[in-house]
Design a protein that fits this description.
Layout (H helix, E strand, L loop, with lengths): L5 H10 L4 H13 L3 H17 L3 H15 L6 H12 L3 H9 L12 H6 L1 H15 L25
Helix pairs in contact: 1-2, 2-8, 3-8
């Protein structure tokens, strides 16, 4: 069954920022105020939300925007995960709009590939806090199919 994502989005709304370093500092403080169980729920919500934008149509929008901001339209698996993470941390309305219509990515004000690279910290913070507390890998305690590195769904573009 799908997790209740209200905890997740209430925190994202408080920390969201176009600058992932600012968001990460705020997220770190938020996560440290949660119970270990809540950190696990937060991470599961993150992964379930990430999967909503793991389609070839979203990948294509990522290529368009990354091409526009960096001149490089090749989007690796890592970059696609980091870009989806960045969009989530622009808030629920922005992310939901992108899930519905991949073309909205161009309107979110991404202006450097560095923003995408730095979003990696937002991806890893919950797992880092969890492992620091428990000594266990959080990924071992969540369903493997929730990995953000799963192949995108939908119709693959013709190369």
């Amino acid at each position: 069954s799908m997790t209740d994502h209200s905890l997740f989005w209430s925190i994202v709304q408080r920390v969201r920022n176009p600058d992932p370093e600012v968001a990460a500092e705020a997220l770190d403080a938020e996560l440290r105020g949660l119970t270990t169980d809540q950190v696990r729920v937060y991470e599961r919500s993150f992964l379930e939300e990430m999967s909503r934008a793991n389609t070839w149509a979203h990948h294509s929008s990522a290529q368009d925007v990354m091409g526009a901001v960096s001149g490089l339209s090749f989007v690796s698996d890592d970059v696609f995960v980091s870009l989806r993470t960045w969009v989530i941390y622009q808030g629920k309305d922005a992310f939901d709009a992108w899930v519905r219509d991949p073309a909205t990515l161009a309107d979110l004000g991404l202006d450097s590939d560095e923003q995408v690279g730095l979003a990696e910290e937002l991806e890893f913070l919950p797992t880092a806090v969890y492992e620091e507390r428990t000594g266990r890998q959080l990924s071992d305690e969540l369903p493997q199919e929730l990995s953000p590195y799963e192949t995108p769904t939908g119709t693959a573009p013709h190369s």
